[in-house]
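To whoever is covering the structure queue this week,

Two jobs came back overnight. Logging them here so there's a record in the thread.

Job A:
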Amino acid sequence: GAFDWLFLGRVALAQQHTVRCEKSRAMEGKGTEVAALRARVAELEAQLRREKMKHSARAKIEHMSSEVVDSNPYSRLMALKRMGIVDNYEHIRECTVLIVGLGGVGSVAAEMLTRCGIGKLLLFDYDTVEIANMNRLFFRPNQAGMKKTDAAAETLEEINPDVVFEAHTYNITSTQNYDHFMGRIREGGIKGGAVDLVLGCVDNFEARVAVNMACAELEVPWMESGVSENAVSGHIQYILPGETACFQCAPPLIVASGIDEKTLKREGVCAASLPTTMSMVAGMLVQNCIKALLKFGEVSYYLGYNAMQDFFPRYTMRPNEQCENSWCVRAQKSYAERQAKKAAAGELEEIAATEQAVVHEENEWGICVVEASEPEDAAASTSAASAAAAASPVPRPRPAKGEYGAGGTTRCLLLAPPRPPALEGTARPPAELGVEKRVRAERGVRCWAELGVGSWKPRPPKRDATGVVYIKSLALFATAPA
């Protein structure tokens, strides 16, 4: 009896286990079937998109034409040649640009270059399109869930099928991907050589350092870009290895301190994002890129943008001889050697040590500003030269009331006509005042100067028959406070 009951219990347990295993296998089979069906649906959707593109996309154009017809997508671009802006715009078809990061700046930059007719674009990103990205330009809601590289290539091919696209979906900072990334910089050009320019459009310092190290080692120029966390400022920086400062020559505080930026991010807190600021930075980036590729205009080595004051700072940063990037130091030495060879061959033009004077195309009234510290002998020569033309004075408008410092302000009027009458002498400001002046032109005839000279009171200046003030040395003088 007891043995039989024990045996029957074990049989029942075995049967239950068998049923559970069968159910589990069935569920696994269903899960595999569901995964296979989803993959098939994605494949069919991709095939459908390709078929749509075949029917909607225009035929490829082998050569750029300046013919002004509605069917020519390059007519307005080639008009730059006719207007004398660019000598060889069609050269852009031979250029290759590599873009790292397809966020708010990189995706818009890729679209701009595509519309400009760039020869080849290499796209690098590892992220996917999200609905949270819809506050930016370029990506569409129906592309949510797609890899950014795939979505970008799909859209850009539809915009301009003449451009060659190459998409890579991986993180360039990982060890296994960095060598391949460098290989594409070295050999990814449209003609098989190195790319012409790399655009860094990433949102973290780790990726910026990776791009900087790769470009410094290969001595390939690149442009770094970024937008602030508050979304109201941004910048671009053109980096020529060895010639200008690299990203690590003057690194941000986080990079210089060796802080892991991942530790600074807080859960549930994201950076602000404005499509306007990102588009501004992308436009600045691509404009600079095209000028560098086609060699026209003046390329900015650093250009910032502050949306709060509409301020655009611009300057050049020289490389740091003690840069921690050894490849940057080597590039500096290589650049110095090249410059020395050019100088020895007489190919370097000598740069004037003194600043050239600004020459205006038109200066009907001969307006000029002379420093208050002008020597007396120079002032005397100015007076003597002007006295020779005193016989035929040039008519001048009478200044309006209050133009000579009414209300206690310290102002003066400067006029230097081409043929002025003899200038009358007045008191000169003491040299030790160190007057700082701010001059602005007014109606092409008058120049005001704001002087912070305190209570200093010169003798009243002389006036001619028309009421215009003349000063012996054309220096800056202030009226007595009211």
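Job B:
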Amino acid sequence: ILSLHAQSLAALKKATDIEPYDAFCTYHLGLQCAEMNQIKHAVACIRHALSLQPGHAESWALLALLVSCCKQYARALRVCRAGLHQVPGDRALLLLQTKFEA
């Protein structure tokens, strides 16, 4: 499985090198990094994806989860709120917000 993750990571890095302003590729690179427990790199990718497409709810949710896995729950709550400002009413973000408020 690790080699498949490594192959996926390499392909996504190549895709983002070719298309550095593609939010979709950048989001998936961040997601792959998160799956490989490369949290800092995942956060950087997701932040970049959000700079390219601020209305991408999945990026906001992943960023909140990444921040929370570093036990920064107040920051994760702020990420949810910022995401909801961009994508009002998103169910995933609302659910995460509720969990972080508890």
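Note for Job B: The radius of gyration is 14 Å.

Please reply-all if you pick these up so we don't duplicate work.
Q.
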